[in-house]
Write a structure and sequence with these properties.
The protein is of the alpha/beta class. About 30% of the residues lie in helices and about 20% in strands. The strands form three sheets. Strands 6-7-8-9-10-11-12 form a seven-stranded mixed beta sheet. A five-stranded antiparallel beta sheet has the order 2-1-5-4-3, with helices on one face. It binds iron/sulfur cluster. Iron/sulfur cluster (SF4) binds next to loops.
Amino acid sequence: MLKNLSEVITLSKTYNIPTEDILFLDFSLSGVKLNCPYVRVRFKFIPENKLYFKISFQRNINEYFFALPTNPHSIYCIKNNHLIAKEEEIGEVECLANDTCDSSYPRRGGTVLNLNPIPKSLCHGCKFCHTILQDARDKKENLRDEISLRRFIKEWLKKQKKTDLSHLIQVAIVTGCFGDEEKLVEWLKMARKVLNEYKFNGELFYYGSEITKGGSLDEISSLKPFGLCISLECFEKRNLILRYTKRRLKIKDIKRILKEAMERGIRTNFSYILGIEPLEIINEGFKELKPYINSFPVINVFQLHQEQEDLRCKEALSINYYIKVRKMIEKIFEDKKITPRVWENYRSPWYLQFGRRVLDDIRVP
Ligand code: SF4
């Protein structure tokens, strides 16, 4: 999206935002040029260029992680394990790989485990989604029942060289594809039982739109600590943009579910795709939802893939839109003690700073 890296410095000074945050936002918006057959790539990034990473060096932040679309028109390219923009070297790239669709993966330095018991690669319908384009590795792995979950945990522990799951702070279930609320609740109950047998005592987290009934919330509240993130994604044109399981939930339903979840002591938030709706819709929507959440929403910058160009709203064709939204959301949540969690989102508008608050945590998987 940016034409030159000098704009990173100018925007950083104009808006008083760390250069890192502007640069990483632009990574998400631009993707990376790479001579490879992959639609997306993921990699560890080691900052090097002092011009852009002053704060990272001051705070001893030595590594970041990104998953980006490949784009032949991007100013960023990877050559000999270095990230380069217009001949200028920015940093080192490690563990460059095809960003496949997987049924399990770690986050936060292996202290969070994400599980997708139903293959996401089989799930289609949301216009902004890129899983349909990713190479699917998740079809081979099966986590649907108790036996397969136990088998998976044993293999995972072996790979991680651990004896139990007591080191995990969260197991996240990220799937919109169960297709049946009762089956989903039963799976979550089974998962809590099995995970606890392996000494897991962290948060069980569900990210999706398939928990809707008061009875289901009663059942999942018995699995606490529990976090519920409703995949809201957008406020308007939900019928046109979202797959059935998401669009059948109206904003009033989402407010009711979040409220009832909070009343049961569940951590609540929602997810949002940034780049498809105008500023005033975002402003109104976030203000309306604010009373119904007790943790920061997962805000994903919309990363453009083939045939998705029309989905980016007109305002979002400029990086200024994302900076304005960033400022707007910081203001909305100024009086609430919640901030983005840097390990749960690799395409966030925030990396080092949220308003005046410093963001810190483990940033790599
Ligand atoms: S629910 Fe939507 S965003 Fe999630 S995997 Fe399915 S199509 Fe993609």
